[in-house]
Amino acid sequence: MAGRSGSKHQFRILYDGLRRLRSALRVGLLALPTVLVCLPVFLIVTGSVMSNGELGRYLETVFYDGTEYIRWKIVPDYPTFGNYGKLLFLSPQFFVLFWNSVKMTAGILAGQLLAGVPAAWAFAVYQGRGSRILFTLYVVLMLLPFQVTMLSSYLVLDRLHMIDTPGGVIIPAVFSTLPVFLTYGGFRSIPVQLLEAARIDGAGEWRIFGMIGLPLGRSGLLSAFVLGFLEYWNMMEQPMAFLEDKSLWPLSLYLPEITWEQAGYAFAASAITLIPAVFVFAWGQDYLEQGIIYSGLKE
Amino acid sequence: MKGHAAGAGQRRNRRFFLLFVMPSLLGVILFVLIPFMDVVWRSFHTVVAGRFTGFQNYAAVFGNQAFRLAVRNTVRFTLTGIPLLVVLSLLIALQISKAANIGTIKSLYLFPLAMPTAVVVLVWKMVFYRQGFLNLLLTQAGAWTGLWGEVHTDYIGTGASFGVLVFSYLWKNCGYTMILWLAGIRQVPAELSEAARVDGASEKQIVRKIVLPNLKGSLYTIVVLSFLNSFKIYREAYLAAGPYPQQDMYLLQHLFNNWFVDLEFDKMAAATVCVGAFLFAVIILLMRIWDKREE
To answer: Which top CATH class is A88-295?
Structure first.
């Protein structure tokens, strides 16, 4: 008897232990991203307010293969905004690159608005046999990685003399079919009866697009915008392939070029690159989520 | 009368479809479809004289050592990364869907999507280089438990680089995939789980018998999108280790870029056609499976 209740007791302890382990695991799963997300941001921000000398002392061992381990300070010995100052006021090159990034991102998003949004409207509202086949083509194109279209883009850009111009990066991205797909998701959520009612009331198709489609389908449009911004602000493959002139490069390509002697710059420049992305993320997180969900819709 | 109206509706549909789709379609034809035909043509010709060579370019591609290495690594990366990502994000989504304060946690998981790669790589270097944070942490853990001594592994320059790549992929895409799972979980009819709960089913049973079977539709989408996003890992790999990294992380994307830089357009054209055709087949196949599910 005693043995049986003893084993029951042990079983109980084991069971409790397992449950505790599981809840610890759950907490870990939810807490882990906090560490993994906050650590990089924390390192960038604290690094950007350290002087080059202090950063050098901490990082030297990493980049010149020393024997000690890396060190870091939560609060720098001599906090300074010198890196930002030099970057913003004394290096015009940085401004050029920042504006390159802004121009490219803005150009692409504006172009997508002009070409992609009407196309999404066409696929969502005027369906027929032909439109379905074409839509499948758009979906396939949307799923092809850059490397598959790299050579064809290069060939046409070369023929149009657009290699080594900002247009060479902007134009192919304007005709990307992903934003069409995302915007389509928003337009599809508008009830068809609403469009029919507007038609009966005598509204023309352009008016319906402008007065009903754009305002009511705005969630798709904005989610394409947010996903697009984060993608193009971070664009690397296209400028790397199509821009030789480094003065045309966007920030995302310039950052890795900064050498370790100027680590302070690298951190400050990273922080500045991060700011617009954080801003758009904070403002558009709901649309970002919506966009991800639209990207997962089948039709 | 009705037939007539339907005919007029169809005509209107066709006319406005063309009008609205035209700007985008012209761009796609001019910048994607026609140049792709050009690539197909080039894959059968020599670079310089444009002489017809049959399948010689293709033979050269498949005989190429670098190509085989790149294909092997890319396949290995996809087969490791995607299952890990899909399962991990599903586990997180299942946990989160029960949690109360969902907003903050979602933001935290999504934030890596907004981090520019160049910024991320700067941090990864500080973590994964020989004297970096990871080794510091491991060494301290070793000293604390007394099980091992100082750790000086170089994670970028050795076979461990593959693991770093997978980690980086998971780190970046977990939030994206998790949102897709959450959307799928939300679509599982609440009445079903309620009814099961009333009948005395445990939470675990509900997940296994009701939620998971209803997520099969999401699974296909998630695999396709994870695959699409897996190609972007090239950015991290390139920034961390340059155009010729340690051989375990030499991917197809490196190869394409290096052929491009070296102007080896004949090989590149043949490889483009092969990879493009392969992806096309996979995508169409998956679409078929989707459509069958819906019927």
So the answer is: mainly alpha
